Structures
1.
Amino acid sequence: MDCHQCRSHCQTAQSPKSRWWHWRQKKTAPSLVLPDTLSKIALVGMPNVGKSALFNALTGRYVTVSNYPGTTVEVSRGQATIGDRPVLIVDTPGMYSLLPITEEERVARDMLLSTPVSLVIHVVDAKNLGRMLPLTFQLIEAGLPVLLVLNMMDEVRQLQIQIQIDHLQQELGIPVMATAAATHFGIRELKAKIATYVDAPVLSPAY
Amino acid sequence: MLLSYPQPIELAIAQIESVLVKEEEQAPLPDASLSLRSLALLLLQNDSALWQRLRLSDRASQFIRTIIEETAQQLGESPMAAITRARQQRASMLEQTVLSEPSVTRMTWAERLHQLTVHPLTGFPILLFILYFGIYQFVGQFGAGVLVDAIETTFETYISPVVNHAAAWLFPWKPLQDLVANEYGIITLGIRYAVAIVLPVVSTYFLMFSLLEDSGYLPRLSLMLDRLFKLIGLSGRAVIPMVLGLGCDTMATIVTRTLETKRERVIATFLLSLAIPCAAQWGVILGLLAQKPAALMIWAGFITTIFLVMGFLTAKLLPGHKADFFIEVPPLRLPRLQNILVKTYVRMKWYFWEIIPLFIWASVLIWVGRLTGLFDLIIQGLQPITLWLGLPPAAAPIFLYGFFRRDYGAAGLFDLQQTGALDGAQLLVAAVVLTLFLPCIAQLQVMLKERGFKTTLVMVSFIIPFAFVMGYVMNMFTQVLGVSF
């Protein structure tokens, strides 16, 4: 696989080393290698905005979701079917900014530094949009293909907050979607949107 | 452009970008996933980790450092502060144009409850309320009492006799029968402990913990405990893993990664492995002491005191600055039943499959030990310790189990207590030792992984003797004062 300029983390299939037990490895090898060739989609955002809930909704897998910041401290990966092709969804620990302060923020940042992704989904708590947007700016500045997801829309509605999504989309110059991951609201639309990125080539971020 | 920074910063970005372009001509940069503008901004904010990753030439590093200094001088503040402010201003401007809140914000029930939970005057009674009904009544009385009794009786009346008979019929050799059945068999002891004692206790505790987690109560508890932590000189941030440690110390030790300094991580790991009882310990200790509320109170007071004193001492011993505390306080939410059930189920499954092999191995090892006579030898060796702690000789094997896993030992105690072999004071002593002792092998593994060999060795060689000495202190305390329950 041609990993443009990155020098690290280019895993190759382990075929040269196979010995007499390779008949067993052959069976397992495809699933081990597959994820690297899949398009990767990263979920990033501040702690406790619902990245893991969205991860569960997209992949149908289960990672622990709590109403407690810092529940996720490691990157977890899961496969989702977008359109009719498999993609790899990567859930990351919460981060406040691209400039990491704590170890788990560095985990999330390093993932973005070293892995080329088809799409970065910035998940935000829609109620606290103003506090979340600085990270959106940084992701856009970094030239990453960003999609902004306004999560927790159920609570936004409860609080009678109005958000002009079209206007936000125009100002930021990136697509903006609304979801409530806990109740699966907006997941189908989000998947449809992601599908348009999976087809696009990986290495040409629009900036 | 979406966001432009003050003039000196834009100038510095352009300069650093051109340095990076020159560097890139000689050798491609290691992390080309981010744009040059982004890399320049990070360097401008002194991102040390990135600085190391990029491996710039000396000349380029020197040049960039000069740019940063000059920019700081022109701005009259650090570039980081100016950059952060520019972003925040743009963000709040954008928020104002796209988001409109209702003009009259009424006080919701959640806000009112929030005020009540974080105010010390009302927050503390709420904590006691939760501890009493959620933990003591639900886990201690219902889980460790009603459920354990029901499952244990079923096991003893229907499964154990069948297994004993089947073993006697299948295997002609007595030792082989003992491996699966009878007093110490894999099924009649290992599986019985796991299914009949540990499972009901831990599942009720996990259910309660998931409920608290999803309601948003835990961050508020952290906020309230923060004051207490500051009193003993610990950073309030360390509260986060501590509160999680009430669920599982192993997970919480991993969560110490959210702490900023190495000092905080070491202190938190130490206190977690010493004085924070995890779900399994809580459950079984509640089960042991629930019938004796006075003993339970003394246990809680004693462990809290040890926590505070040791926290104070380690904070004194390990010099360093206190990091400021900030925690995202999410809104209080009505937990979603489905998420709680799924989460409890996933945790139970994980926990159960983690302990089952260990319990089985423990049974096998005990079997081998008994067959070779090693078991009796070790128990004889341990007897002075149990006598020293004022416990009956029958408690000696339990400490042997405890080395495998604390919950296995606790389940053994539970078993012993039901036969009436222990009085209240003895239970109290055993509960203290089990709480202070390392929780499990998984905890030890995580400590080694996160803190390294040397630090772990120091901690463990303190914790294990300390647990027994405190047991002794408790024994003396009850004897001298003549306390009995």
2.
Amino acid sequence: MTTDPLLKVTNLTKTYTGSPSMVARLLGRKPVHVRAVSDVSFSVGRGEILGLIGESGCGKSTLGRAILRLHEPSSGRVEFGDADVTALSPPEMKAMRRRMQIIFQDPYASLNPRRTVGDIVGLPLQLHGLENGREDMREKVAMMLDKVGLKAGQIDRYPHQFSGGQRQRIGIARALISNPEFIVCDEPVSALDVSIQAQIIQLLLELKREFQLTYLFISHDISVIGYLSDRVAVMYLGEIVEMGPVESVLATPRHPYTQSLMSAVPEVDGTGKGQRVRLKGDLPSPLDPPSGCKFHTRCPLAIDICRQRKPVTETVGKGHSAACHRLAERLSLLEGAAQ
Amino acid sequence: MSVIETNATVAAESLFRRNMAAFMENRLAFGSAIVVVLFVFMAIFAPWIAPNDPYNTNLFFRLQPPVWMDGGEWAYPLGADALGRCILSRIIYGARVSIFIGAAVILVATTVGILAGLAAGYLRGWVDVVISRLVDILLGFPYLIFAIGLMAMMGPGLGNIILALAYKEWVIPCRVVRGETLVTRELEYVEAARALGASSKHIMLREILPNILSPVIVVATIRMAHVIILEASLSFLGLGVQPPTASWGAMVADGRAFILESWWVSTFPGVAILLLVLAINVASQGLRDAFDPRFTE
Amino acid sequence: MKDPILLDVRGLRTVFDTRAGRVCAVDGVDVIVQRGECLGIVGESGSGKSVTFASVMGLVRPPGRVEAGEIIFDGVNLRQLPPRQMQALRGRDIAMTMQDALTALNPTLTIGEQLAEMLAAHADDLPRSRSDRRRVIRARSVDMLTLVGIPSAGDRLGQYPHEFSGGMRQRIMIAIALASKPRLLIADEPTTALDVTIQAQVLELISNLRAEFGMSVVLITHDLGVVAEHCDRVMVMYAGQVVEEGPTERVISDPRHPYTRGLLASVLRPGLRGQPIRPIRGQVPELIDLLPQCRFMDRCPEADEDCRHLIDMRPVGPGRRARCIRTALPTTEKAKA
């Protein structure tokens, strides 16, 4: 499945610099650096869904936006097909945007309230000269609306006249109308009700098949990721701590963070009860990340070396890798907790 | 709450129409808006409404009192000034000066302010630094004193008055627009437009501007009242519109010498200023409540 | 022996008069909360689950109002209670935590001040002298924060809400809600804004505190998983009505209302990979000018002409009720036979 990588990300880093206020600068305070994404490498094969999972503040959304250069990466390379996205000039980048798109989390904030659905969905056609006049544009928009399950007659309505799920469909239509190859889905169902979530996921899977799309699917919900991804990458504080085929990662999670993430999800059928790994404390501040392995402050398995040295990423199975000092002991956290 | 959300999907009317409906419900504001409209009509149709020629001097009617006082007559309903000119007619013609200058200054200032504010708020970087410093410096200028200085330097004339008042006025919409832009540029629909490959110009004018126009319009109407007072002040000081053109400020000044015996010469133009400014203020507050509920909550 | 029923809501109807018409957000809802139990309220946005309990708390503000129904808490009809007594009861006997802890806490007061306010307002065993009072309140505040798992509580009393993380703020709000040892805690989406690892901590905290204080808990949520793990009984709401209620395990293993079934089928699980999902089609109806018929009809795969009339809750098993003619059919047929 991963024979032909469409997207290749190498050592991508995104650092934000908070410039201190005038007073703070006079007092000799230095600017603050936050590494939102730290030295991340992975690739996504053509036609694949890579699920990117992590809690809020782990840098998963920043990573998605850095790939699209919505937030300019600080260092590292993003290759798409045979182009180096990070090296493109502004006009080249504009042309590239037709091929890589994004679907946003918040169906209320992501649509301009003052523009009609026709204008919103038709904008990519206008920007990239993909239409022959207004009538042609409306026709294409109407066709796209039909594809995402809206009515062509709704083309002149404003976003506030739609429900959350319908708005998300508009966002999907906008992302797909320029016929892209790759889509970053940034928590596209997190803001929706459960029954609507299922509708939208079904739609995204159908469209993927029809348009031969490749997704980077960002979510905090391991159930969603587990359901639809081919491969999954787990992020913690800006780093990928575990990555591999979804069956392998979910069946035999090797990083203690992945294990705790999975056991924290409440299950409808109550299977999660009993063996439960509870993490202590909160996510550390990214302003002052822990030394060594960033997870050591919450890890039940942490030993001295975890506090001192950063673990290297090791292969633990076919296409499955994890970064943890205690992999060698093959000590499953669940077994450890049961003892 | 979820209920509000339900309403949003129910209402098939546009946002503008909903706001307009809220505005109409505010009786006081709506009444004030009608007063403003009446003043505008008065200005436009002055030649047809005014009972006399406002420039026609007739020393025979010098300081003639209004009609309801002893010695008054219907030919000069509000009396006449020191040169025997009809006060009512001069007030009607004076509305042209006040409203035209007020509108022109606000138009120039708002246009400049919107462009500068959008550039500063969206492009950030050095553009923002330059514009924001300029705004800070101008805010430190005493408005009227500099306007007087400018008028003294440039000499009288309609264009010069507009310049002398607009030199600083643009700062106000600029600050509003910059603030709103800073908030709006972070919204996902702006990011979506960037992700689609839209240019900065498209994003500023098509995506951001329509969404921040309400507070700008509200501020513009509030400031219009202020500019009308400033113009009257300049004219009062003799630096505004030059005689014999009728201007409310100059009329108030003209009557100063006779304020004890012929109070009507100064008072009626003063009342006109008060009425128009008050009406604009009340109407604009109604607009603000209807279009920008953030201010009231 | 005390009446085992702590809260008994009957025929609650809460409406909002809006420009577009009258929105009937809660329409004929009955709720019973037993002493010491945890009741889960499940529904999507617009189901009326939050408005129901805002009505119980007397927190519905115009244009909304409680139009009909009885709200009996421990033998007292809350709808007939004078505002001042209602205010005293709120916080002392019934406490509520909100989904968004950042906006629910006062940003200008320290955590210590907010806790002290609550403790002083609702405790009657405080010493007379001011310095003693302050000492006791401080000691109790530290106890409360320690109880909800905030480390070095004494030092953190002087901090403001924004200095805490999301999970910590939710705990603080729970601490404030519990300061007066209420008999009923209404937790409105306590974990929706939180990450899963933090969510698990907060839910476990609520469960432990319920056992410790012997209070009843109403857990309002959209997450069936949360209900399955923490609630004794569950009520499923749809479009302002209760559509199914009963013991959690029974409702989840054998749902009787098509909406409950659809909701369960919409919950994704990694184990379902490759299998098609069967989401509920369509969307929640507008709560304006509703026809006298089953409200789930338009989305229901089993609906037919028989559903075009008002449908009451019907018993579908021990302690179970559902609002659907299909599930009730076996019982009626038995009655005929």
